Amino acid sequence: MNDGRIVGAAVVSHHPGLMQCEDFRRMMGAGQDSDLIAGYARLRERIAAARPDVLVVFDTHWFTTGYHLVDAGSRYSGTFVSDEMPWYLHGVPYDYRGHPGLAYEIEAASRERGGFNRAIANPGLGRHYATLNLVKQLRLEHDDVPVVGVSSCQNCRWQHFLESGAAVAEGIRRSGLRAVLLASGALSHRFNDIDWKPSHPRIFHESNVSSPENVESDKGAIELFRQGRHDLILERWDTEYRKRFWEASGAHYLQMVGALGGADCRTKGEPLSEYENARGTGNIHLWFDLAAEG
Predict the structure, then answer these.
(1) Domain, as residue range, for 56
(2) Domain count of the chain?
(3) In this predicted model, what pLDDT tens digit does every residue of 161-194 receive, in sequence order?
(4) Fewer C-beta neighbours within 10 Å, C or N terminus of the chain?
(5) How many other β-carbons are positioned within 10 Å of the β-carbon of residue 69?
(6) Model confidence pLDDT, tens digit, residues 257-292
């Protein structure tokens, strides 16, 4: 069997406002829709061109303790209601395939490396909208491409996420599969207070992000992504980005870049959307093209 490989990767926003109807989104956007919606279409094109056999989603809402879990279910179907925002994120049907073989390859690779990735197959295991919103927006339901979710383990240092990602990459290599990685989450993730009043009529506008300092930091990170300088992101993690409270402590990005080589990664990021606000958090879609690297 030929070695498997990662053929693309992305940091992707999943914020629940994107699941509201277009009329409501345009009302929130002062007549303009979120560019993240158009960005999903751009991302679908990149994924199709990469021709993956499987998608791996680093899910910033699947919090676990003790292990980075890899979902080894063969199929996921049901109706989702968010316990966080059930007044509008409810009654969402889903039906898509998993890939148990890849999940167990990742566990085996992790065990051999002394790591903490473990496969889990439990039919009662709940779903999270950090994955399901991507399934919907990227039109992955009833598709031939299976989806494998990876959790964000909450009792980790950031280096552990890099190690988790490296084990994911090794599992992909052994599997013989072509994989696209989706890091599902925001950059800075400080919510505005419940009584917050927007400073710009277009709610998605970046001036409504929780602080100017977070906007500046996020934009600095986006520029480093453009340059492929993941080494500088990691070098500044403790002094800057950890203090900006990226979603799930940045687990989604750290696992993704760990799979791409960690500090040695120089894969450049292409923004596929505007940088936007969501209740104070900084959101953007970024594509990392592995095909260009051969």
Answers:
(1) 5-293
(2) 1
(3) 999 999 999 999 999 999 999 999 999 999 999 9
(4) C
(5) 24
(6) 999 999 999 999 999 999 999 999 999 999 999 976
